[in-house]
Amino acid sequence: MADRSKIGMEFPPYTIKVEKNKIAEFAAALAQKEDIRDIKSLYQHEQAALDAGYPGIPMPPTFAISFVFWTGGGLMGIIRELGVDVAKLLHSEEDYEYLAPICAGDTITRKMKVADMYERGRKERAGRYFMVTVLETQLINQRNEVVLNAKTTFIER
Amino acid sequence: MALLYDTISVGDEMPAYTTQPITRTHLIRYAGASGDFNPIHHDETFAHAVGLDNVIAQGMFIMGIAGEAITAWIDNRQIRKFNVRFLTMTEPVNLDDYENTKARATVTVTGKVVDKFEEQGEKRIRCEIVAQDGTGSRKLSGFFIAALP
């Protein structure tokens, strides 16, 4: 069960260079493509992205999740840290606010904290009781601009 | 063929986007790309141990597919907000029982413009989206906000 003493806990910040091939790999997974050459041109060729008006190869809108999973043992490490039982874990909500583009070549610092943990429902009603955990993530670029705010909500069923 | 704020109306629909039947290989490729190695998405023995018949798709894979649907219609850089609630689990197709299981593994994303407004000096639309499988089961619902020229 999620450990409520972790409310407010901040994960160690982490800085990562956004790599073009990592974006292509992610775009291929979402587009269900076997071959990187079959993904959208703007996810594989910088010139196509520039022609489309981007400062560089852009990320798919949900690529932000890969910053959450990059460090600290990934998802599994994070949920162990929080005392959450993986066998009961369900992702219930994901929210992104995009403040500026994130492109290949950017250096992104990820800040993440446990924003909240609370119970929903009643313990005596089996299947209607959940422990809810909310993580807030902020991505900051090399110009010290906050480029994305994310809120990840998961429950233990 | 960029969308223009002045020519889009509340009630307009986003073009529907339908996946190929999702296979276990698709889930593993997404696991590698995203870093989500929860075994419930790739290890059938773990799925069985927690009471599921099959591995299930990452919720974020389905949200990512919704993102594919959106960015087939509107440029990535125009998106200001994207929010989903996950509703039901998605099981991949069983390759040894393809015809009977492909509908549950085929996801269609639809959307509809519900609001037009000005905010932070931009002309924006709010569009509600739903992803559902071929049996009619809703996988997620949510919305995005985009700025239009």
Question: How would you characterize the overall build of this protein?
Answer:
The complex is a heterodimer of chains A (157) and B (149). Chain A is of the alpha+beta class. Chain A has 2 domains: 100 residues, Hotdog Thioesterase (Thiol Ester Dehydrase, Chain A, Roll), CATH 3.10.129; 39 residues, no CATH class. Chain A is built from 4 helices and 5 strands. Chain A has a 5-stranded antiparallel beta sheet with strand order 1-3-4-5-2, with no helix packed on it. In chain A, strand 4 and strand 5 form a beta hairpin. By secondary structure, chain B is of the alpha+beta class. Chain B has a single domain, classed as Thiol Ester Dehydrase, Chain A (Roll), CATH 3.10.129. Helix content of chain B is 23%, strand content 33%. Chain B has 4 helices and 5 strands, in the order βαααβαβββ. Chain B has a 5-stranded antiparallel beta sheet with strand order 1-3-4-5-2, with helices on one face. In chain B, strand 4 and strand 5 form a beta hairpin. The radius of gyration of chain B is 17 Å and the shape is elongated. The N and C termini of chain B lie close together (12 Å). Chains A and B meet through helix 1, helix 4 and strand 2 of A and helix 1, helix 3 and strand 2 of B. Strand 2 of chain A pairs antiparallel with strand 2 of chain B, so a sheet runs across the interface.
Walk me through the topology.
The complex is a heterodimer of chains A (157) and B (149).
Chain A: E1 10-17, H1 20-31, H2 46-51, H3 65-68, H4 74-81, E2 89-98, E3 107-120, E4 130-140, E5 146-156
Antiparallel strand pairs in A: 1-3, 2-5, 3-4, 4-5
Chain B: E1 13-18, H1 24-34, H2 44-49, H3 59-71, E2 79-86, H4 98-101, E3 107-119, E4 122-133, E5 138-147
Antiparallel strand pairs in B: 1-3, 2-5, 3-4, 4-5
Morphology call of chain A:
elongated
Q: Round the Cα radius of gyration of chain B to an integer and report it.
A: 17 Å
How large is the count of helical segments of chain B?
Answer: 4
Uncertain segments of chain A: none
| Order of neighbouring strands in the sheet with most strands of chain B | 1-3-4-5-2
Count of alpha/pi helices of chain A:
4
* Helical proportion of chain B, percent range: 10-25%
What is the CA-CA span between the terminal residues of chain A? Answer: 10 Å
**Most residues in contact, chain pair and counts:** A-B, 37 and 39 residues
In helices, the fraction of residues of chain A equals 10-25%
CATH topology of the largest domain in chain A: Thiol Ester Dehydrase, Chain A
How many structural domains of chain A?
Answer: 2
Structural class of chain B: alpha+beta
Q: What separation lies between the terminal Cα atoms of chain B?
A: 12 Å
In N-to-C order, the SSE pattern of chain A is EHHHHEEEE
